[in-house]
Amino acid sequence: MKKLYWLLIGVAAALVLAAGAASAAEELKEITIGIIPTESSSSAMKGFEPFRADMEKALGIPVKLFIAPDYAGVIEAMRFNKVQIAWFGNKSAIEAVNRAGGEVFVQTVDVNGNPGYWSLIVVHKDSPYQNIEEIIRDGKKLTFGNGDPNSTSGYLIPTYYIWGQQGIDPAKHFKLMRSANHETNLMAVANKQVDFATNNTEDWDKFAKAHPEQIKNVRVIWKSPLIPSDPMVWRKDLSKEWKSKIKGFFLAYGRIGVDKEKERTVLAGMSSGWAPFQDSSNHQLLPIMEIDMAKEKMKLQGNDSMAAADKAQKLADIEKKLAEIQSYVKFVEKYN
Prior knowledge:
- The protein is α/β, with parallel strands linked by helices.
- The chain has 14 helices and eleven strands.
- Helix 4 runs parallel beside helix 5 (90-99) and helix 7 (152-166) packs across helix 13 (286-301).
């Protein structure tokens, strides 16, 4: 169980604070929030700006926004203490926890109160393809708009539930595969620049509001099981006092006070539309960790270039970690 705890909480502080990164446990003079790039930078910044301003006023120190061109950029920014709080998908949150000293503290909730969202495979409305089986059948003819490798809905979930269970390497199976963010992939399908692409229900709704004519050109042919809502992650070396202030602000926002209705409007304008945040922890990452580990197992099983002994050892290591995760998932389900 101690090994699993290490897996959940992340690498040692010495690794996290390498290359001169300052400790966030010191008195904070400002806070920077990292935003994952699911849409254009200008749109993301605009949606988060009122929240940033309210947080700055409530905490009494400057609050800034940071957006990188990809998920890895936000993870690295957290690792080197360029951001202290970040919005991640579950897959990228695992990377932030394990590589950047991150810790989940609250969870987003969509504007309709859904407990999560769903990964999608989409095609143009005029596409002859009606299901995944037909796309797999004609793979060599088709171009695929895949998601960022650190995206839960755009990469991890389709890889596990579709390609992994079919024994398919998308980079080899399809005529062409290219990776992009959710908005770019939807636009590419709408404009027939790719034959199909990954997406999710949250970004579908957001795209529909921003591009009502374009969304009419896209339809869904596959929907995943439920994915837990996105987590907000802070650096776990923040002081207890600052954690208390920050978490209090997030959980009260849109719930308490004379401005709660205005704050709910602000939340509705963030990402694809949020309701007030819910309390959370690293436990919400367990199902995604299980899928990620199973995906690595399938990838390893399909590697014919590795020496048999090395392959057997690596598979045994993965099986052990997977069993630990599954055991812990059952424990959490039983006592929560």
